[in-house]
Design brief:
single chain
Length: 503
Amino acid sequence: MSTMELLASGFSVVFNPSMFFMVVIAVVLGTIFGALPGVSATMAVALGLTFTYTMEPIPAIVFLVAIYCSSITGGSITAILFKIPGVPSSAPTTFDGYPMAQRGEAGKALGVALFTSAVGGLFSAFAMFLLSQPLTQAALQFGPADLFAVTFMGLSILTCLDGEHVLTCIISGLLGLLLACVGQDKMYAVQRLTFGNRQLLAGVEMIPVLIGLFAVTEVLKQTNKKDFLNAKDGIGGGKVNTKMPNLKEMWSIKWTMLRCSVVGTVVGILPGAGATIASFLCYTMEAKVCKNGPKFGTGVIDGVAASETANNAATGGAMVPLLSLGIPGGNAAAVMMSALVLKGVQLGPLLLVNQPTYLSATFASMIVTNIIMVIVAIGIAKVFAQILSIPYSYLGPIIVMLAIIGSYANQLSIADVQIMVVAGIMGIVVRACHLNSAALVLGLVLGSMCEQNFSRAYLMSQANLGTMFFRPIAGPLMIFCIVMLVLPVILPMIKKNKANKKG
């Protein structure tokens, strides 16, 4: 089947009237699910499974892909308006999106988020369609040592999150790593920091921690103010008009979008990495290389663009190993895989040989979804913005209620609610001690994956660190990590020596 015939077959599936209507419904549901606190992209796809029971396999994956892509975008709405990441991958969006909203630029922040989400999603869709087999083969070359090097690179960029407070960033990251150590070790089944609590054996869940650190902490902060959140705080008093970026703004973030699209797609392909790691990795990368990097965290469109481009680019990347080799690139892709297996689909290399329509239909679904979701998200953002006209004395308890529901719904566990409460209080302490909550979350997100891959690589190399890191991929990455960690210490010394020589 030629490329044109393949494309025609994919778009014929999506533009079938009944299927197109289902895609629109999927985009609406996905955007709403993504905007609700505590509903991850994985949960959104799982909730969408009930609609696919009577569908054929190809329409089913089209529907689920539409929910998956739109839920990632939906998370940016509450991240910008309320400083509550709807999905974990939208957490970095709060760092610049919410300060923009407080300055009265919520519409601009939403417009940049939607535009860059579409760019990242479209880029990864084309990458998935054109480079599916080559990229999958490249990802298979990543062993545990290489995956450890990738995740450690994410941790090493902690030194770039706040150039003026490197030590506090490192301390915050170490606190995040400490939280990632809670639970039963997956390699040796040893209990760590559980204090005899069985509910902590599975570890500290990321979603309750994110909700606590961002939502609960923000509510406690706002209730401590004499002037409550209202129209003069810049959120809009319930009236937010999404403003798409103009040509000048698009041109100013072109390199950010390109870099994050490429990195996000590659990270999405790596098994177990997913949109959250892609989002944090690209945000911290852009904080170092972007010309507005020093302003990250104060409300610049580059920060919003980095996060939203990356997490949407990861969606297409996650589908590459799923369709080509039957290996899910992330949790949401794993849910889709289980749905297809239940329908009798044999995933693997032969799938695209015998039934190439799966690839073309997925590609067409992602293209259509990334276009429709911009329109849908603008409407849904208006609805969510209406909530901001409610006095904060009412809005605060409502946010806390949604936070409790979101935390409990994660695993139907009261322990997650308790973790959320502790994380909310910890967020106040972090703020009071002038620590970096972004670094703490980054340590929590990457800690578990980093440890597991190191343990596997250490065992496979028979406790030989030289064998672990003298690899074509792991070696250069570890050298880069060491440079990133040492650079903040060396640069001030070099500047001081130059100043002394001049003096």
